[in-house]
Amino acid sequence: MSSRRRIDLPRRGPPAAPLRPVPGLPIVRLLPADGPPRLALADLHLGLGGPPHLGDGPPEASGPGMAELLVRTARAESARGIVIAGDVKHPIFGSPAPLRPVIFRFFAELLGAGLDVDVVLGNHDVGLVRDLPREVTVHPSTGAVFDGVGVFHGHRWPSEEVLSSDRLLAGHLHPGYRLAPSDTHPRGKERCWVRVLFPEAAPPRRRTRRLRRPLGREMVVLPAFNPIAGCEALNRRRPGPGRSFLFARFLALGPARAYLLDGTDIGPIPTLSAGPRPGSPRRASPGR
Q: CA–CA separation, 10 vs 122, rounded Å?
């Protein structure tokens, strides 16, 4: 009889709730079979674009403005809760004193509307927990599973529980698509959703304890919720340093397509080419 210790291999999690974007908004609905939906979003970046002495951004990107939009959408969708997939605040390390009440009031508005609120920490959320109301549930940056959907921010490798989920949901990439300039988008870049379908994954070897790729069927990358957070033009060049992890380790695993916020399918994202895109500089400049 062999004395070799048995290693239980991770299995794909239970069937996940369908993901349905809210038309016109960078918000997705998690639709479980036995209850009201949750709303998921990413990249609030509270404090972006505001003067240091105020701690908040311009009206369309301010804490009160984004909280009001979320509460209104949650009521229209009869949602029971909000899941934020990272980057609640814009400063990476800590929160300047003027920003702390902005963060607290943002979440107090959601909680006051009767919503459950979950936060998965992102790379900008160092020191965030002390600024939150205690009723907010905080999850580590390795992610969490909601209604069978594995949610993580996208800047680091998620947990095996998340990777084993039937569907994945992430942020961090700020996905966008460069189109012809228009009156509403003079630079031609618009936020978009990204959906990638994973091929059937081979079971991990018994000697390997750590999952090195997702076991599920698909992944959706959320557009940045903050309208002034900028976006990567994924049809023009590879993401710059800091965002290439999510692009290379997940999007490149299968066919990926982009969709505008109104649902328009704008085609595949060329994730597998090794070099710069045609018409792009040889080196991608930092930023967006």
A: 25
